[in-house]
Amino acid sequence: MSLKHEVYDLLVVGGGINGAGIAADAAGRGLSVILSEMNDLGSATSSNSSKLIHGGLRYLEYYEFRLVREALAEREVLLKNAPHIIWPLRFRLPHRPHLRPALMIRAGLFLYDHLAKRVTLPSSKGIKFGSESPLKSIMKRGFEYSDGWVDDARLVTLNALAAQAKGATIRTRSKCISATRSDGLWTVRLQDNISGQIETLQARSIVNASGPWVSSLFDEVISIQPPKKVRLVKGSHIIVPRIHDEAEAYILQNEDSRIVFVIPYEDEFSLIGTTDKEYYGDPAKVAIDQDEIDYLVDVTNQHFRSQISASDVVRTYSGVRPLLDDEADSAQAVTRDYTFEVDAPSQQAPLISIFGGKITTYRKLSEAAVDKLCEHFPKAGKKWTADARLPGGDFTDQLSLRKQVSKQYPWLPTGLVKRFVRTYGTLTFKLLEDANQLSELGLQFADGFYEAEILYLINHEWALTTEDIIWRRTKQGLRMSDQETKNLTQYLDNHFNQNIKTASCL
């Protein structure tokens, strides 16, 4: 694929949430942008989060008031701009007096309610747990407050789509292998991970948003001393069959002062996490260990009547958080705040490097980084993302959109309508196009999972592999058998091999 420009204003290295957010913001201000991601979009930290848009109640214990205030304000922005993949979620916090006094929790929740303006989310309150509660009977009282849920991997993809719509070039499976400065420009080489082909481009600026690889990019690609130290912290999650039928999530306190979330997940499951462990290996090889599984199972069983075991785990995932090394004593105490460093020697092309951050504040981080970048591009446009709906998010509420989709496609099963709306929003109409009956959606790979959706993801959302499709663009892997997964993999192999043969004949 040929490059659009001989010289780009900006190369973004890294296709996680920060890289995609920066690419979208910069492209929307009129800069020519290319994003290079060595794997799939959101394939590392950004698809392995706790999937929450939240202020971070526990961060108040570490006096992270600015971070919490900014994150609380961003909840409202993101709920408005992406109502298909982000929605409100109530949390219940069982009170355990020997861990945190009630007065301390009330004070924290008061700050949580008032540090930033709430528009859509209700305030916190004290609650009692009765005989119908899924918690053990020893837990009588607790608290309830609001935050938000997000499909983290889709948030990355939608930002990449937004960037593309503003003119950005998105290159997945494209690794930045070298970047050197000369004559006020960066000369960069990108290597296609599939074909091995190397292309050279020039850029007036670079943003290093490579997440866990932010420091190694300096060592291996740019050959500049990293300006900050990064502390890699592993967070792992387990997924089990639904523990309880309530709509609320639970936030559990543990004896080690950590907290664990138990979150309703994909209707039939509970998502439990996270852990906090120092990580020293290759971020690409991060995986949960048995101690982490046992830890999450134990904390859950301390609280719920319905007991689980390691054998109940249907899936695990782990991510490496590239946190700014603030020399905190423990991994859980390391700041989740972000910073970026600017390297812009006189008359030389600037480099901005992103350190730390959390998914809730990605838009603010992106806006601040592009503000700084635009000091070198005086003709760039103004800020715009605060009021911009992400692709597919141009509707009022999910219920109304489901009714609209059902009216236009009355033959579409109710469950599929619901899944499409909360995955694609109004992009559902692009996926379904002019289909008039279920059979026109093509091959069925699993219950409610049709060829039309697969082709949409390939043609419009950079999906190439089975993992891209069933774990990042959707979560259909939770419901697919091994044979169904193999069938999809075989289909993709045939599809791409046929395209290669067709292209070679042209």
TrEMBL record:
The keyword Oxidoreductase applies. Residues 385-487 form the Alpha-glycerophosphate oxidase C-terminal domain. It is an enzyme of class 1 (oxidoreductase). Pfam families: DAO, DAO_C. Residues 9-328 form the FAD dependent oxidoreductase domain. GO terms for cellular component: glycerol-3-phosphate dehydrogenase (FAD) complex. Its cofactor is FAD. SUPFAM superfamilies: FAD-linked reductases, C-terminal domain (SSF54373), FAD/NAD(P)-binding domain (SSF51905). It catalyses: a quinone + sn-glycerol 3-phosphate = dihydroxyacetone phosphate + a quinol. Keywords: FAD, Flavoprotein, Oxidoreductase. Its EC number is 1.1.5.3. GO terms for biological process: glycerol-3-phosphate catabolic process. Signal peptide: none annotated. InterPro entries: DAO_C, DAO_C_sf, FAD-dep_OxRdtase, FAD/NAD-bd_sf, G3P_DH_FAD-dep. GO terms for molecular function: glycerol-3-phosphate dehydrogenase (quinone) activity. Coiled coil: none annotated. PANTHER family: GLYCEROL-3-PHOSPHATE DEHYDROGENASE, GLYCEROL-3-PHOSPHATE DEHYDROGENASE, MITOCHONDRIAL. Belongs to the FAD-dependent glycerol-3-phosphate dehydrogenase family. NCBIfam families: PRK12266.1, PRK13369.1. This is Glycerol-3-phosphate dehydrogenase. It comes from Amphritea balenae.
